[in-house]
Amino acid sequence: MPERDPMTFETRLADAFGRYVVAAPVDVDARTLAAVAAADAPRRYRGKWGFAPRWAIALGLLAALALGGALVAGALLRAQPGPLGGGGRLMVFTRGTAIVLGADGSMQGSRSVETRGGSCPRLVAGGAGLAASTFGGIRVGGIDAPGKATMLGTNYSGGERWSRDGRVLARVRFTEGITFTTFPDGPTGDPVNVDVAPGAIGSGIGVIEANLSPDGSTLAVLAATTPEQVTADPRGAVDVLLVDSASGSVRTVGRHERGSPWLPTWSPGGRWAGLVTAAPDGSATGWIVDAFDGSERSVPLGTSDPELQLLAISADGARVLVLGGAILRLLDAVDGRAIASVAATDVSDAAWGPDGRSFAWVGREVDPSSGVAGSATPGSVLHVHAADGALLRDIPVADFRFAWSPDGSAIAVIGQDQRVLVHFPWTGSPPLAVATLDLGGVDDSTCIAWTGDVP
Amino acid sequence: MTDITIGDAPAADATVRLAANGDEVAFARLVERHHASMAKVAYAVCGDAEVARDATQNAWTIAWRRLPTLRDHAQVRAWLVAIAANEARQAIRKGGRRIVVDISESLDAAPGADPADRIGTVDLARALAGLKPDDRALLALRFVAGLDSTEIAAQLGMSASGVRSRLSRLIERLRTELDHA
């Protein structure tokens, strides 16, 4: 066989692939969108809040036993007694079923929750309730009061942002203002709204991006200076605003004329807000805003703007985590000095602990000499580091989801044996098993969340 | 033989933005526009129409949930086909499926270029069956979706040079196998 030119071979290969995929199922059938919307479809056999009757869960468990472990709807989660260790309330959700555990490990609620497109429900009102996004709105209800729920509108083009403890909800419209919602009488009480008129937001043209601080006190807003930024092209000069959720008052902390600012983010405690701009050469610059006095400083992020995937600021504003170009970097947020870095692939999440002592990420380290990832299973290891970059613990996990305890001392993961485990990276104590995904294991709907104590 | 995206960028961007904010009609438009590309990529990875169908459906569910996190709306097609490739890859791993080599002469009998210069579909299927799912996904993104190394790198969290290097090795391997088939 004669030697062929590589380009010619690539052309022939593309041609062969084209003929090979003729057999692909390219038609959009009814199942395609139905699968997306399935979680939003009315479930007639359930109550107003979509809670499955207890007998259904019980029957499911019995049937599962009778069928030797066959998958039966409803029998998905099993709580295990014992204190959480990190305090607060922990929610585990999978395949439409949520359980909520109290700090002492007691079951606070277990029910079916309908969500839009498989999104995760949230612990709200300090863990006293659950909120779920549906096509009809956001349903907010108590975890111990089935049937009672408040429906909040979702016609907010800029989306919804919750505080970490679920006490504050910010609903953002690109051009029609912002509404902050709180639940002073608990999740089933009447919510209180604070509206911010569009004219009060910067130049009044609209919002490009916004993000609520973890404590819910402040919304960081990147406000448009031209109408095109809202409707078509977000690039251009941007006003940086901080909006107080309790009063609706707006502070302008600066304007960035260049670099198409994006990615508003917050430190865990809500003291520091961050955003990113691009230099003319494409390199990314982080800007860290002190929410207390509005002052701002820049830090070079060591990656290009198109490659940047994540910017996370430590609680004290002194360090930033940057993911870009398949490298996770820990940088000094004052001078941009690299404190530590790791080549990594399949990085699916990275976050600082609430107390700022540590950070964690899920992904695979890559050997820089060989380019080979360190694990055969994507997203199989949660790496927990001290704030100075020192590795505290590698934790095998079933997937990328993890949740810090409210005090930052513990971290919840789904272990490879399908148990929900609480690890204590700083003490080295053995992990606590707090729940088990009984049947079916982890799927794309599975999530865990951990919030502070009920007030 | 790659798919070509047609349409003006601002309108496409608006569609993605609306879909990201929960507009179901806009999302349906995205499905209409990109479903075929995703199904083809999924099929190239798994070699099974039913698995590809399920993988593509799963990919749409994921896309609906994660669309608000997509920053560069111009990359929506690359993002979607990468999700489909990943779902197909995972379906193979979970199900232990292998590519079924279908001895179908009709596919290779279609009119076109000189048959002597063609790579047979059956030969390609056999060669793909010998590759790891990760490698098939890479090839599918390149030769079925038509993404370049930079786009693939952005979707897979790799460096562009790493993608080029892996693709080069894979192409060389396929060349050896297919030229001797």
Short description:
The complex is a heterodimer of chains A (455) and B (181). Chain A is mainly β and 455 residues long.
Q: Tell me the number of helical segments of chain A per DSSP (H or I, 4 or more residues long).
A: 4
Q: Rounded to an integer, what's the Rg of chain B over CA atoms?
A: 17 Å
Main structural class of chain A: mainly beta
Gross morphology of chain A is globular
The percent range for strand residues of chain A is 35-45%
| DSSP strand tally of chain B | 0
How does the major sheet of chain A shape up?
7 strands, antiparallel
The DSSP helix count of chain B reads 9
Mean pLDDT of chain B: 75
Structural class of chain B: mainly alpha
Question: What do the pLDDT scores of chain A average to?
Answer: 79
Quaternary structure classification:
heterodimer
User: Which term fits the overall shape of chain B?
Assistant: globular
Arrangement of strands in the largest sheet of chain A: 21-22-23-24-25-26-27
Through-space gap between termini of chain A: 77 Å
* Poorly predicted sequence stretches spanning 5 or more consecutive residues of chain B: 1-9, 96-115
Low-confidence stretches of chain A: 1-7, 39-75, 375-379
Helix content of chain A: under 10%
How far apart the termini of chain B lie comes to 21 Å
Describe the secondary structure blueprint for this structure.
The complex is a heterodimer of chains A (455) and B (181).
Chain A: H1 6-20, H2 30-37, H3 54-66, E1 77-79, E2 89-94, E3 97-101, E4 107-112, E5 122-124, E6 129-134, E7 137-142, E8 149-152, E9 159-162, E10 168-172, E11 178-182, E12 192-196, E13 207-212, E14 218-224, H4 227-231, E15 238-244, E16 250-256, E17 262-266, E18 272-278, E19 283-290, E20 296-304, E21 308-313, E22 319-324, E23 327-332, E24 338-352, E25 358-365, E26 381-386, E27 391-396, E28 402-404, E29 411-414, E30 419-423, E31 432-437, E32 447-451
Antiparallel strand pairs in A: 1-31, 2-3, 2-32, 3-4, 5-6, 6-7, 7-8, 9-10, 10-11, 11-12, 13-14, 14-15, 15-16, 17-18, 18-19, 19-20, 21-22, 22-23, 23-24, 24-25, 25-26, 26-27, 28-29, 29-30, 30-31
Chain B: H1 9-20, H2 24-46, H3 49-66, H4 76-95, H5 105-108, H6 121-129, H7 133-144, H8 149-156, H9 160-179
Helix pairs in contact in B: 1-2, 2-3, 2-4, 2-7, 3-4, 4-7, 7-9, 8-9
